[in-house]
Specification:
The protein has 293 residues and is an alpha+beta fold. 38% of the residues lie in helices and 14% in strands. The protein has nine helices and nine strands. A hairpin with a 5-residue loop joins β4 and β5 (137-139). α1 runs antiparallel to α8.
Amino acid sequence: MKINRRDFLKVALSGIASVSTSTFLFKKVASARTIFEKHFEEKEFMGILVDTTRCTGCRSCELACAEAHGLPIPDIEDRTVFNSIRNTSVKQWTVVNRFETEKGEVFVKKQCMHCTQPACVAACLVKAMKKREEGPVTWDENCMGCRYCMVSCPFDIPKFDYDKPMGTIEKCNMCYERVKEGKLPACVEVCPNDALIFGKRRDILHEAKKRLYTSPDRYIQMIYGEEDAGGTGYIYISKLPFERLGFKVNLGRTPYPEYTKDFLYAVPVILILWPAFLTGINHLTKKDKGVER
């Protein structure tokens, strides 16, 4: 097929405009990331200490989370859920998993980690993802639907609800509204065994280190989330190595916005193509399911 000069120029100029626009957007991302880091370096966030040696798998936290956020109510008496490892979902922002070990059953709560410098926040072009001054990472409805927060998260937490007309990102928000009112996060409030402790991140880190020091036979000498991925709002202590409890232990200490920045500049068109790509995949998946016999 032949192409004349006029058509060629149209295509070329269109491509240049797209790349220029995307380059401008990514410069805005980098600028926002720099301001973001400078602003939050001086803040003292709240966080939650999870002592896995005290968790009994009662799943009260799952129930409290659902009730606090209008999610489907789980049957916490159903122990069959522990037969497989569960991930969070659009209908469950927190889940408890069971691990069978030589030291007995170990139960581990899973939810958004509320990173100190979140990749999802740095990657969001329209600031729908926010790191609040109190510590929680939240999502707002001004989202453009790019879903890059899902790609950038090292913990694979944000989930997109395709069943809602406009689509929403669903994940734990550390009960941000409750925290603003001076209340405890719902999961912390109902935990019957003090497996969850809410407080200033500095204070809960101090408590974690105190427990490791005073009870060396009870815990391994590591605090997950202290420096992993640059540090997280949820921190964990355990009697077993964390890789045996489903944790990613190869994330390094570098805050993930550093990796996000490099990736965004390397592939400047991804945010233009990504929404259409994911939407197309979703439609194709639904279509395939519709013709299955």
